[in-house]
Amino acid sequence: MLTTSFVNIACTIINLLILYFIAKKFLFQRIDNIFMQRKEEVDEATKAADKATQEAINTKREYEKKIELADEEKEQILSDIKKQGYDEYERIINDAKKKGEQILIEAKHNAEVENERAKEVYAAQLTDMVIDAASKIAATKHSTQDDLELYDKFISEAGVSNE
Amino acid sequence: MKETLYEILMGDKALIHIPYGDGFFDIYKSVVVSWLVIAIVFFLILFMTRDLKVHNISKRQAAVESFVIWIRGVTGGMIGEEGYRYRDYLGTVLIFIAFSNMIGLFGLTPPTMDITITIALSIMSIILVEGAGIRRKGVGKWVKGFAQPMAVIAPMNVLELFIRPLSLCMRLFGNILGATVIMELIKVAMPLPVIVPAALSLYFDIFDGAIQAYVFVFLTSLYIKEALE
């Protein structure tokens, strides 16, 4: 019952080593490989997720900055447009004023010229009338009576033509 | 009954006779059965780890993965973090002893019932224990370790080098031998020749076999843990 032999003990030790080798190679290492691959995948996924989050934050910041800039630009454009509008307004008003003044001056001038012309016409008519009257007086024999009539007639004619 | 017991206890162990060296090279039956155990374990491992995948794993793979995690948890939990490198060996030993003890279910004599196998197992264990100690501390410190905590007990510590494997070997051998003998007696003595022996076989072959495998591995890992401290 208690007999044993060196060769069989050695055989069993070799058996155990073989079994250990088999278990290590075909069970533990294979499973370890799977676990390792899984771990790597998880690590990679985590890394990718971190990266994506970082990128998203960066992009958000960029856009916020851009939006801020756009606001500023908007203000700038609005104020520019307002200023331009005021300038245009000033210019138009000034133009209108200038034109109005010119028209007034021209009108005054025209009125003066017209007046001058009317005076000339009147003077010419008066001259004609005087000449006419003088010739009439010279042509007729005249008494005091006649002269008086003549004056009256002249005055009434002059009055008619002057009306 | 007597013949059966005689066959178990006193029968010729040698199965393969080698006509050289006057029986020195004869291969025992237990060694042949342990080859069978190794073959069974090998094919089981090959079958279970066939076509492993990272994703969409099959139920088979889930089972083998959780088995590996479980057995590593058992051995790693006993041995502690410092001895993690030895847990796969302990797991292998656990599997081997458990399968060896349970092969009685198929009508074969458990290899662990032969003292040859348990001697080999305990020699491996003590080599592993002391090897781990030397690897960890270096030879000088390992030798000095025998004189700790004081020089007086150094002989005790040296004796432990032999007591430990002896107790490991004898415990396993005695338990399995006892279980097998009791099972043989029960088979003869029980009035219902199938049901009661089957129920008791559940205890002596499966439960006791697993417990003894666990105890062997537990004590070995305890020694390794102690050696690593």
From TrEMBL, chain A:
An example Gene Ontology molecular-function term: proton-transporting ATPase activity, rotational mechanism
**Could you tell me the membrane topology recorded for this protein?**
Single-pass membrane protein
* Subcellular location(s) of the protein: Cell membrane; Endomembrane system
* Record-level GO cellular component terms: endomembrane system; plasma membrane; proton-transporting ATP synthase complex
Coiled-coil spans are: 35-80
Q: Where are the transmembrane segments?
A: 6-23
Key words, A-Z? ATP synthesis, Cell membrane, CF(0), Coiled coil, Hydrogen ion transport, Ion transport, Membrane, Transmembrane, Transmembrane helix, Transport
Pfam families found in the cross-reference section: ATP-synt_B
Record-stated family: Belongs to the ATPase B chain family.
Q: How does it assemble?
A: F-type ATPases have 2 components, F(1) - the catalytic core - and F(0) - the membrane proton channel. F(1) has five subunits: alpha(3), beta(3), gamma(1), delta(1), epsilon(1). F(0) has three main subunits: a(1), b(2) and c(10-14). The alpha and beta chains form an alternating ring which encloses part of the gamma chain. F(1) is attached to F(0) by a central stalk formed by the gamma and epsilon chains, while a peripheral stalk is formed by the delta and b chains.
**Described purpose of this protein according to its UniProt entry:** F(1)F(0) ATP synthase produces ATP from ADP in the presence of a proton or sodium gradient. F-type ATPases consist of two structural domains, F(1) containing the extramembraneous catalytic core and F(0) containing the membrane proton channel, linked together by a central stalk and a peripheral stalk. During catalysis, ATP synthesis in the catalytic domain of F(1) is coupled via a rotary mechanism of the central stalk subunits to proton translocation. Component of the F(0) channel, it forms part of the peripheral stalk, linking F(1) to F(0).
Q: What is this protein called?
A: ATP synthase subunit b
State the gene name recorded for this protein. atpF
UniProtKB/TrEMBL annotation, chain B:
Location(s) in or outside the cell:
Cell membrane; Membrane
The record's Gene3D superfamilies line, in alphabetical order, gives: ATP synthase, F0 complex, subunit A
**Gene Ontology terms for molecular function:** proton-transporting ATP synthase activity, rotational mechanism
Q: Report if keyword Transmembrane is assigned.
A: yes
Q: Which GO terms describe its biological process?
A: proton motive force-driven plasma membrane ATP synthesis
Q: Which GO terms describe its cellular component?
A: plasma membrane; proton-transporting ATP synthase complex
InterPro entries in alphabetical order: ATP_syn_F0_a_bact/chloroplast, ATP_synth_F0_asu, F0_ATP_A_sf
Major site of localization recorded for this protein:
membrane
The record lists the membrane-crossing segments as 27-49, 89-109, 115-134, 172-196, 202-224
- Pfam families membership: ATP-synt_A
Q: Does the keyword Lipid biosynthesis apply?
A: no
Per the record, membrane topology reads:
Multi-pass membrane protein
* Keywords from the named record: ATP synthesis, Cell membrane, CF(0), Hydrogen ion transport, Ion transport, Membrane, Transmembrane, Transmembrane helix, Transport
User: What is the stated purpose of this protein?
Assistant: Key component of the proton channel; it plays a direct role in the translocation of protons across the membrane.
Query: Which NCBIfam families does the record associate with it?
Result: PRK05815.3-4 (NF004486)
What protein family does this chain belong to? Answer: Belongs to the ATPase A chain family.
Name used for this protein in its record: ATP synthase subunit a
The scientific name of the source species is Butyrivibrio hungatei DSM 14810
Q: What is the lineage of its organism?
A: Bacteria, Bacillati, Bacillota, Clostridia, Lachnospirales
**Gene that produces this protein:** atpB
